[in-house]
Amino acid sequence: MIEAPILATLSQPILPNLYLVDYAGVAVFAATGALAAAREKHDLVTLGFFAAITGVGGGTLRDVMLDVPVFWVVDWKYIAVCLLAALAVWVIGRPEWRFRALLWLDAIGLAAYGVMGAAKAEALGASPLICIVMGTVTACFGGIVRDLLAGQPSILLRREITVTAAILAAVAYVVFKLLGLGNVTAAVLAMPLGFALRAGALAWGWSLPSFPARVRTP
């Protein structure tokens, strides 16, 4: 349970120096949701719904598990950012680049939200392991919901590296904080690591080893 003095300040940004990064992460993930809806030729309202559920889904689950006020309920601007991202996709989207844009925006979002989820948990006094879990949940849950709604294979079921990139970003942030670095420095160092891992998977097909099949003896 979060102590009362901390709860009293939750209407303000917990990490003011990373506040813009948080908005950027929401915008990027919201754009992936809108792009997923655009691929299926949905209307603008559906694009907005997909953008919102993808943009704030992971952070919502994180805040519920941390037992703190849900961030977008406290600050309406997060939903506004999601709707603006959906509108941008509607206005400037082109069918030939939507799928690749979704993949690369998703890579940025995984890294940014892996860090932001871990950072919020760390600011609330959670243990390092819980910070990593919260970073992973924040980065992945919105994408899972997006894929389910769009009828696409979940990121959890893809052989290519996705969730691992979010875990790496969260782990790196926590390690850098344990080494005594500040929030911004830790985030600036951690996010490129998560993004680079996901980018390598997109560019060169990196994947983790699968569970080995049992060899039958004659």
Kindly summarize this structure in a few lines.
The protein has nine helices and no strands. It is mainly alpha-helical.
Task: List descriptors.
disordered N terminus; 9 helices; mainly alpha; 218 residues
Written account of the structure:
By secondary structure, the chain is mainly α. The chain is 71% helix and 0% strand. The chain is built from 9 helices and no strands. The chain has helices spanning 4-7, 19-39, 44-66, 71-74, 77-92, 98-123, 128-150, 163-178, 183-204. Helix 3 (44-66) runs antiparallel to helix 5. The protein is globular, with a radius of gyration of 18 Å. Residues 1-12 have low confidence and may be disordered.
Architecture blueprint of SSEs:
Blueprint: H1 4-7, H2 19-39, H3 44-66, H4 71-74, H5 77-92, H6 98-123, H7 128-150, H8 163-178, H9 183-204
Helix pairs in contact: 2-3, 2-5, 2-6, 2-7, 3-5, 3-7, 6-7, 6-8, 6-9, 7-8, 8-9
